[in-house]
Amino acid sequence: MSLLARLRAGQIFLKAYNVTDPDHQAGRTMRILHWIASLALCVMMLVVVGDVILRAVFNTPIQGAYDVVSISLLVMTVFGIAPVVAGRREIMIDLIDGFVSNTTIRVLAVIAALTGGMAFLFLGWAMITPALDAWRWGERSLELGMPKWPLWVVAFLGLVGILWAYLIQLRSNLRGAQDSAPGEDKS
Amino acid sequence: ETLKVTTFLPPMHTFVKAVNAWGEELNEKSGGELDLEVFPAGQLGPPPRQFDLVRSGGADIAIFLHGLTPGRFPMTELAGLPLTYPSSGSESAASSRRLTELAPDYLAGEHEGTHILWLAVTPPLKMHFTDADPSDLGNLEGKRIRYAGSTWQKIVESMGATPVPVPPAETADAMGKGVVDGASFPFEATKAFDLAPVTEYSMEPGLASATFAVVMSDAAYDRLSPELQKLIDETTGPDRAAWFGALWDESEGHGRDYMEEAGVNIVKLSDDQIADLQGSFRDIVDSSIESVGGNAAKFVEAYKK
Amino acid sequence: MSSFALGLGGIGLMLVMLAFRQPVWIALAVIGIAGNWTLNSLMTAKFTAGTTLFDVASNYNLSVIPLFVLMGEIASGSRMSAELFNAARVLLSGLRGGLSMASIASSGAFGAICGSSVATAASMTRIAMPEMNKAGYEPSYSAASVAAGGSLGILIPPSIILVIYGSITETSVARLFAASMIPGLVLLVLYILVAIWLAHRAGAAPLEAGASIGQRLSALKDPWQFVLLFVLTIGGIYAGVFSPTEAASVGAFGAIVLGFLKRTLDGARLIAAIQASVIVSCALFMIIIGATLFANFIVQTRLPDTLLQLAQDAELNVFVVMGLIIVIYIVLGCFLEGLGMVLITVPVFLPVVVGYGFDPIWFGVLVAVLVELGLITPPVGMNLFIIRAQVRELNIRQIYRGILPFLLAPVALIILMFVFPQLALWLPELFYN
Ligand code: NA
Ligand code: NA
User: Fold this and answer.
1) Where are the alpha helices (DSSP H) in C209-302?
2) Minimal Cβ distance to C347: which of B43, B57, B177
3) Chain C partners within 8 Å of A84 (Cβ)
4) pLDDT per residue over B126-177, tens digit each?
5) Which end of chain B has fewer CB atoms at under 10 Å, N or C?
6) Chain C residues with CB inside 8 Å of B40's CB?
């Protein structure tokens, strides 16, 4: 694919991360996380298609396709949440919008960013025990028998990105940027 | 005191019914002081998390399948090696009793943080085929066989067939469409999964079992009064395991009747054929024991005694 | 405080958080964790929280969601869906609400390759919404058509919900699939009737002049490749070439290949589609994680058990108890996601329902219909959220308002299933007895 195409896709999504300067460290990080998640989605699709074709045509399934799909899904999710958070794409119910002032909405958005960040901090703290268990007891994946602890490491890496994304969200909420800025969707 | 029981098994499963019966016994013998409240079907957490759920205090008692967390219970899983049974018999009553007897010496470490109430070994899983006649084992060459767990993967491979992972609920469908040519299941499960209409031949004997545990968290046990602790001790252990295994053997018999009545040919292997299989499984057995290490060999010897 | 009261209080608090613009996943997760902590201990709450993110994110069965989202994005980005809907528009011209009917019918067809309602709605949003907007449909009306049509995904086989019901109740999945086929088609017709009725209100859908027979026939030739992709995917599932879960990857990949062959897709559009799919899917996965934590709390409060016990103690008539069970489902459906609903209720209700002499297969179909209803009832409706995630111009209020009349259709189907149980029982008996 052309460099132009890459740039275009990157540019389109930069705005969506609430980061306007492309060289900004935060924007670069979110873009990288988004790319990793996108790559994982492609791997998921290609492994299944490859498995189906090899099975149907040559009767030789790809060993571990099930495991690869599960792992790719994990990678996509833990790295893909950060750009969702940074771009304030979390789904919420906007029933009160007509009845309260913009200031109230901003305050509620700041509360949401703080609560969300704290919720993920709690999840991260809670993940330490099962991650250590997976390492200590040598838990393995069902099909390939691969050790599971590296997947927990991946989950923690994703978590760092998510917490960073909450900082970006908090900053843009404090600045009072409007939700759903028109034109940041690629459609 | 109400003890929370968690399991991934469905509410009408033999195991859940048996635990409910044990709960009634506890209630009666404690004069209503002790009760069990069962959360079936993974209501409290997904199947592989049942054991840790108890260790975390989310439930007091768990019924779980060791095979769902590969690598976590290596020693216990050796009881699922192919054609490896106590000399007293391969039925669940005998093997469950033996495994429970060995638990304090060999398996307590793997079940750290919990009391093993009893262990259960399934009746050996039989193989079922859509059209391959297993009376000549050469017919299985190149067939695609549904399996679950790494031991069965190796068994299928050593028979010259290709192992294919298929979820239990999708097996009948996969056999009907010819996605797989056979599957490993105990007879007991064949009715729930509707296997008879797609099965032409079933092969006896079963080749390998899976193991379950019923454990209580140390925290829950320590919370009980000495009288109630004694009641728990008295109503669990090897005798309970054998009682439960007998129930399992009975439903295995019902499952076999169901297959036979549905017109499935049940093929019995000859002693010579079984001896041949034993030979071809030797590598699987030896390498598994070696990879677990420690006193694994001693454990398997004691189990087979 | 009894666990029953704690459960009701938890639901109330969650509603307050939702009303005050807290993201749906946060409201569900915070109440789920806090409730679990209150009922058990911090250690238990911590264990459940720490494993849920990991387990949901690596659940093989959920892989269909991002892949079907991608298929919808590709179909939309490469103009294939525009061709499809242009054909439907010409074919059904002269009928008011023709595109809405077309999107419900296409959702039904999509349901035949996809076992998840959310994934069906996700794909159909990108396929149908832009075209209805272009044709001047009222946005809340077109969103509701997609949300309602998408819910058919779990009633028309294959169905993830029925597979789970089958494993909880040890009933045959093949029979459940056969049983849900006719009710699925009946519901499709009912949704279309609602769509026609609504279209006749002023402004919901403009009327287009009828095309000639010749024009109608020639309109069919443009989208034939996309229709072929559908047919091949359904065929692949029924011939056993791939599983329904794998069909998601095959469908997305097929759409990409088609797009490149037709030269309507290029590298930039592909990347944009993939990146947009990641955002939409992850926004949804956050809600699934929250919903799992919330369901784990609700199951421990034993809300349905307690209500059922009250009804049984009062020795109420069978149909009153059944009515109560349905009401419990509808109310829970307003707050819970589909899978959690099945896990919480089926183990409790099944013994009672079977005890009254109802067929467990029939009850499975009824549960699937009730779960479908739950997916489109406000405030927590996954199909409504997936549309909100993809169409940012639309606010949730418009979606809520649009969906209300469509709720009549599943309610009507539930009544029909009591009057004519054969709707569900005839096909499995024909196939398997
Ligand atoms: Na479906
Ligand atoms: Na709902």
Assistant:
1) 213-219, 224-238, 244-261, 267-301
2) B43
3) 279, 282-283, 286
4) 999 999 999 999 999 999 999 988 899 999 999 999 998 888 888 988 898 8
5) C
6) 168, 347
